C-alpha cells in the first residue's frame, strides 16, 4: 500500500504558490504492536499553516522542507494493534496532508457518535470553534449591550463569534469580502450589519462605514485580519474598548505592510483610548475545550447555531484550496474530503 502526501517543496517568498508544494507517494511503514493504521477522511485547512511554511521560529516549529504539511484530520482506524482502538472507529489528530498515517494512539481524540456530521469536529466543534468561544468569552469578556465588530465574519472562527455574541445580547457588525458573504452573515447568521471590505475605496471611507454601522462606537474588535480593517476600526473604538487579537491574515504573506499605519500612531491610540489589546493562541486554552464543546454542540443540535463548510475533494486539491483560503476564496470552513 502507498501513502499519498503533499509536502513542502520550498519556502514561499511572499505569497505562496502551488510550486511551493509537491504531491508524492511513499510506501506505508509496517505496523508494530501498540500502533494503528489510519485512513484520513477529512483534512482541515487553516490560515496558521501559512506561518508554518516560513523558516522563522514562532509559537510552533516550522514544517521542514520535504516533510508533509501539518494539519488536523479526521481518520478511520483501518488496522489496529492497539487494544484501545477498534477498526472502524473515527479519530481526530494532527496527521498532516496525507492519505494514511500510523499512530501509537497517543494524542488522538475519538469522535463520539452524534447526529452532527463528523467533519464539524474540525470546524465549528473543533479548533476554530473553540477559538471563537475562548476569544469572545475569556479574552474579550463580552457583555450584553456592547457593540462588537468581527472581521472575516463568514469564516470558520468569525461566523461563530458573531452568533455567540448575538446570543449574549451584543450588537454585532461583521466585515466580510463579498456581498454574498455579507448577505449570509446578516440573513442567515443574524448579525445586525455587515460591511463588504472590497467596496471600501480608502481607509477613510472604510472608517466612515464602521462609524455609520456603529454610531455609539465599538466596544470590542474581534481581530482576524488586520490590514486596513484594523486601521478603519481603531479610530471607532470606545474608551476602555478591548481588542481580541486572534489573527492577522491580510499580513501573513507580507502584503500591505509598507502602507500599514505607523506604529507610534497605533500606540498613541491604545494609550489615549485606554484600550486592552489581548493576543491569544488557542493551544493555551485546552482546559476549556470540553465546556466549549458541550455548550456549542447542544446549540447546534437545537438549531440555534448555524455553520457553513467549503468542501473540496481529493488530497491533490489541498494546495489550491489552501491558496484560496488565504485570499478569501473560501466560503465557510475550508475542508478537503479524501
Ligand atoms: N489565535 C488562534 O489561536 C487562532 C486559531 C484559529 C484561527 N486563527 C485566526 O483566525 C482568523 C480566521 O481563521 P479561520 O480559520 O476562521 O479562516 P476563515 O475566516 O474561514 O478564512 C479566512 C478568511 O480571511 C479573510 N481574508 C483573507 N485575506 C484577507 C484580507 N487581505 N483582508 C481581509 N480579510 C481577508 C477572507 O474572508 P473575506 O473574504 O470575508 O475577507 C477569508 O475567507 C485567521 O487570521 C487565523 O489565523 C487564530
Keywords, separated by commas or semicolons:
338 residues; alpha/beta; Quinone Oxidoreductase, Chain A, domain 1; Rossmann fold; 15 strands; globular; binds NADP nicotinamide-adenine-dinucleotide phosphate
The ligands bound in this entry are: NADP nicotinamide-adenine-dinucleotide phosphate
According to DSSP, the number of beta strands is: 15
Specify the CATH homologous superfamily of the largest domain: NAD(P)-binding Rossmann-like Domain
User: Using only CA atoms, what is the Rg?
Assistant: 21 Å
Cα separation of the termini: 16 Å
The coarse overall form would be globular
Order of helices and strands: EEEHEEEEHEHEHEHEHEHEHEHE
Query: What summary fits the major beta sheet?
Result: 7 strands, mixed
Separate helix tally:
9
CATH class (first level) name of the largest domain: Alpha Beta
Written account of the structure:
Helix 2 packs across helix 3. This protein has 338 residues and is an alpha/beta fold. Strands 3, 4, 5, 6, 7, 14 and 15 form a seven-stranded mixed beta sheet that branches. The protein contains nine helices and 15 strands. The protein is 26% helix and 25% strand. It has helices at residues 49-52, 127-139, 156-167, 179-188, 203-213, 227-233, 263-272, 289-301, 318-326; strands at 2-8, 21-27, 36-44, 73-80, 90-93, 100-103, 109-110, 147-151, 171-176, 193-196, 218-223, 237-245, 276-279, 309-313, 333-337. It folds into two domains: 2-122 and 308-337, Alpha-Beta Complex (Quinone Oxidoreductase, Chain A, domain 1); 127-282, NAD(P)-binding Rossmann-like Domain (Rossmann fold, 3-Layer(aba) Sandwich). NADP nicotinamide-adenine-dinucleotide phosphate is lined by residues 46-48, 128, 131, 152, 154-158, 176-177, 181, 197, 224-225, 227, 229, 246-247, 249-250, 280-282, 325, 328, 330, 333.
Amino acid at each position: 500500500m502507498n501513502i499519498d502526501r503533499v509536502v513542502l517543496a520550498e519556502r514561499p517568498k511572499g505569497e505562496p504558490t502551488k510550486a511551493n508544494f509537491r504531491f508524492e507517494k511513499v510506501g506505508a511503514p509496517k505496523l508494530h504492536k501498540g500502533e494503528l493504521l489510519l485512513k484520513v477522511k477529512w483534512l482541515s485547512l487553516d490560515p496558521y499553516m501559512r506561518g508554518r511554511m516560513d523558516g522563522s521560529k514562532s509559537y510552533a516549529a516550522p514544517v521542514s522542507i520535504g516533510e508533509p504539511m501539518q494539519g488536523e484530520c479526521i481518520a478511520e482506524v483501518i488496522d489496529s494493534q492497539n487494544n484501545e482502538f477498534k477498526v472502524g472507529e473515527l479519530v481526530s489528530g494532527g496527521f498532516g496532508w496525507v492519505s494514511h498515517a500510523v499512530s501509537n494512539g497517543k494524542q488522538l481524540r475519538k469522535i463520539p457518535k452524534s447526529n452532527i456530521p463528523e467533519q464539524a469536529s474540525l470546524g465549528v466543534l473543533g479548533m476554530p470553534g473553540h477559538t471563537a468561544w475562548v476569544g469572545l468569552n475569556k479574552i474579550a469578556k463580552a457583555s450584553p449591550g456592547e457593540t462588537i465588530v468581527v472581521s472575516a465574519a463568514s469564516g470558520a472562527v468569525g461566523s461563530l463569534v458573531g452568533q455567540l455574541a448575538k446570543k449574549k445580547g451584543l450588537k454585532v457588525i461583521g466585515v466580510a469580502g463579498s456581498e454574498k458573504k455579507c448577505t449570509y452573515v446578516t440573513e442567515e447568521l443574524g448579525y445586525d450589519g455587515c460591511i463588504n471590505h472590497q467596496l471600501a475605496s480608502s481607509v477613510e471611507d472604510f472608517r466612515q462605514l464602521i462609524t455609520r454601522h456603529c454610531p455609539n462606537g465599538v466596544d470590542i474588535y474581534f481581530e482576524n485580519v488586520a490590514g486596513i480593517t484594523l486601521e478603519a476600526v481603531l479610530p471607532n473604538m470606545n474608551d476602555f474598548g478591548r481588542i481580541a487579537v486572534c489573527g492577522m491574515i491580510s499580513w501573513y504573506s507580507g502584503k500591505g505592510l509598507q502602507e500599514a499605519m505607523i506604529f507610534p500612531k497605533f500606540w498613541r491610540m491604545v494609550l489615549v483610548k485606554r484600550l486592552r489589546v489581548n493576543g491569544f493562541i488557542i493551544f493555551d486554552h485546552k482546559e476549556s475545550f470540553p465546556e466549549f464543546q458541550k455548550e456549542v454542540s447542544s446549540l447546534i443540535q437545537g438549531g440555534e447555531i448555524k455553520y457553513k463548510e467549503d468542501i473540496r475533494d481529493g488530497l491533490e486539491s489541498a494546495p489550491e484550496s489552501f491558496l484560496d483560503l488565504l485570499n478569501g476564496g473560501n466560503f465557510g470552513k475550508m475542508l478537503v474530503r479524501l
